[in-house]
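Job type: complex structure
Entries:
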Amino acid sequence: MVVKKLSDIGERAAIRRIEGILTKEKNTSGIGDDCATIDLGNEYLLVTTDMISQRTHIPKQMTPYQMGWFLVAINLSDVAAKGGIPLGVVCSFGLPKTTSEVFLTDLTRGADACAVTFGTTIVGGDTKETADITLCGTAFGRVKKTEFMARTGTRLGDIVAVTGTLGKASVGYYALQQKHPAKKLTHGLLEPAPRLREGRLLAQLRCVSSSMDISDGLSSSLYQLQELNGVGFEIKKNTLPLDPGFSVLSTTRTKIDASALALHFGGDYELLVTMSPDMFETAQKTLQKQGCKLTAIGSVTKKRDIILVDGGKKTTLANKGYEHFKKHFFP
Amino acid sequence: MVVKKLSDIGERAAIRRIEGILTKEKNTSGIGDDCATIDLGNEYLLVTTDMISQRTHIPKQMTPYQMGWFLVAINLSDVAAKGGIPLGVVCSFGLPKTTSEVFLTDLTRGADACAVTFGTTIVGGDTKETADITLCGTAFGRVKKTEFMARTGTRLGDIVAVTGTLGKASVGYYALQQKHPAKKLTHGLLEPAPRLREGRLLAQLRCVSSSMDISDGLSSSLYQLQELNGVGFEIKKNTLPLDPGFSVLSTTRTKIDASALALHFGGDYELLVTMSPDMFETAQKTLQKQGCKLTAIGSVTKKRDIILVDGGKKTTLANKGYEHFKKHFFP
């Protein structure tokens, strides 16, 4: 008998196995969206949790402050993707007993700074001894039911759009590799900004038919959205809002394919949304007024595949992404 | 310069350091109670998080099913201590990549079973690769502000009481050591029952002046309550509701001091409450009618110390408890 290991089945299959076991209650959503929702009457309570560990998620160049920031940011990103107003974050720090007190205080400062920067606070937590650094955050928020942005709801003919720029995390990764002096280049990777403002603006406009964050990578997220909604996408390669950081990286030592990294690298905490074409301009302008960016990158199609349009050339988009247990970017 | 390690300062000092750093918001409580509270108008949203790891919390005899149960139970215990109605639990599973799929499904089944047994569900989670098994749960609940049972509020002359029986976790520990055939003896240690029903009944009676769970140990919890409230306690040793499991353990090979274990061992997920003497009988009877147990073990005194009364002998109660980073019960 072959005993299957988690490394054989991968994270998504593991989550499907979990989903098959869990008891569902009427007033809660199942797992499989960025946040769980609990019915509070006119509102949903949003809850999301993310764990990061030294082995898979924490590049060696990441400072303790950045680890704290990162932990909070990735959880708030899930609240942002649902149009939520954050209510608070709890953090559990699993640390080896040889960890210094300064490490703990820097970690806490980073977590606190991220929460406060995005309008919320750390309301509680836990510290425990673990073999490796293992950090777990849980963010919760609230959103009017009428403003909630689910992963499901994509409609034929909708525009596909993303907030911000794409490829920031990969820019950070290569900037570290190249020991680039501009520390700011690494912020997309090490100190990402959750798109809470963008999420709220889109939610208030009630223009979005489906929404998720693209932390797993744009291509991977598109495939998840496609599968959930039974539609297809046509993505125009030349419309991808590539991060300006790409232009600063050295291309002499490393071959850098910005579009491929923007599509597949993952780690960009932007929102991927779909909306009716007649709402797009209003949405874009509303975000722009607040210093936020929204870019149309394609459209929703009937045929259940994802096509990348590159000038006159159409190819099926590769489904690559950051999936845990199977591989890591930071070995 | 001496760099202080977490192993030098211990968990409680670590938490105090964290508390000193975190930004506080008006509509939330600080850390330092069993749950964080978020103001939702007439109610509080309760949030609590607990992490357990192979190295410190998971005895080697604990099955994956029990790990899942335990993780959910210890979080729900914090909701119980505040008088809350649970709304849901999220679980993050940090697992080595060589973990079998069966382990994951058993873990999930245990978590689900505990949640469902106590009237709630697992609404979401995360799975990540870690060096050691590291599990993190977050439970949330709701409670009317008028029914919320804080850690603070102890009044002079109040009765000190506990739910259930004391020493169950230590009974389980010695039952495992003695390889006792009665599996049920280990349940207090490996499959604890959060006192949600007791918590709700006490909350609805509005009889409690302060409340916390005693997972850290009764003596340690009394010292925490004493420090927070600036009072003292007199605890009568012969009133401690010792777990009946003690009588089944062999005392030939191991010297077992049931009262000492009930006071100091920790791991009992019972509630420690204080209340006015004229409310106690009603509270006890109300719980009894629902098959729940409440025992008076002492009273609140003016002098800021904790006295253990053993017949005519009065001694200062030792402040021992399960504190992480510094030591473990399960090396």
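Summary: The two ends of chain B are 30 Å apart (CA to CA). The longest strand of chain B covers residues 43-53.
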